[in-house]
Structure of Acyl-CoA:diacylglycerol acyltransferase:
Amino acid sequence: MSGRQWSRRTVFKAAGGMTAAMALGGVALTATAPAAAAQDGFGLRVVDSDVNAGRMQYYRFATEAIGWDPGVNVLLPDDYHTSGRTYPVLYLLHGGAEDFISFDRKNIRGLTAGRPIIVVMPDGGAAGWYSNPVSSNVGPRNWEHFHFEQLRPWIEANFRTFAEYDGRALAGFSMGGFGALKYAAKYFGHFASVSSHSGPASLRGSGDLVVHWANLSSAAVELGGGTVYGVPWDQARVSADNPVERVESYRHKRVFLVAGTSPNPVDWFDTINEVQVLNTQREFRGALDRAGIPHESHEVPGGHFFREDMFLRDLDGIIGRLRKA
C-alpha cells in the first residue's frame, strides 16, 4: 500500500501518541511527451519540462502558492498531435505519501490507451489534503489555490481542452478521492463528473476520525507541525470541505464511488483505512439518496488499493458524461 511510504513511527510520534485511524494511499504520474508550447502565466513559471512527441508531458512549476516546485504530468490521447481536435479533461488526484508520478506506476498509460480524453495528474503533497492549510511551519503549501486558480487555467491555455462544465471531470484515490469530492462541491460549476476510489466522503464521520487524521498527518509530514484545519478546528473550513455537508453541490453531476469491504485482517493499517472509507462513503451515499441525487457506487472485495477494473469502468462513464472530442 502506497501510504506505507510514510514512517508510521513518524506520524505517531508527531501526534504525541494519538491513535490515528484513516490513512492515505496514493497514485499519480511520470513524463515523456509533447503539447502546446509551455508558457508562463497564471502565477506559474515552468522551471523544468519534458515535452516531446509522445503521449506523456511533464512540467515542473515555480509558484508562490507552494514552497517548492511541484510537478505535473499531462497524459494526452493517442491522436492528440495529429487530430487537431479538442478534448475533455480528467484531473486525477493522487493519495497520501504519493506524488505526480504514482499513477504512471499504476499503468495509467495502458488504462487510457485509445481513449479520447486528456488526463492531468498534479503533485498534491504527501499530506496536503487538497487544501490551503490554516497554518504551515515550512512555507506555503496552498494546494487548493495551485490546482484550481493556477493549474486549471494554465492547462486550458496550453492544451486543446473544453474549458467548460461539460468538459471537465475529477477523480482520485484515497486522499485524492477526498480531494476530488471536495473540489467538485466547492467549485461545483466547473466539473460535470466526480469519482472517489477508496476516498473518504465525510470529514466528521466515525467520531470525526477523518478530520483528526487530516490534521495529524499534515502536521507530521506536510506542514512541520502546522495543520490543515487548525487546533481547535476552524469549523467553517471543515464544513466547507466536507462532502456530506455539501450534498446539493453534487446535483446534476455524475458521481462514482468505490470502497473495499474486506481488507487484509492481519494488516491493521489496511483495515483501518478501508473500514473508515467504507463507513464514510455509506454515510455520503445515504445523504445523496435522501436528497434524490443519483450516483453509482460499488462495494467490492479487498482493502485499500487502486483497482484497475473499477477505474476502467469509471473512465467509460466519465467519457460518456463529458463533451465528446
Notes: Residues 1-38 have pLDDT under 50 and may be disordered.
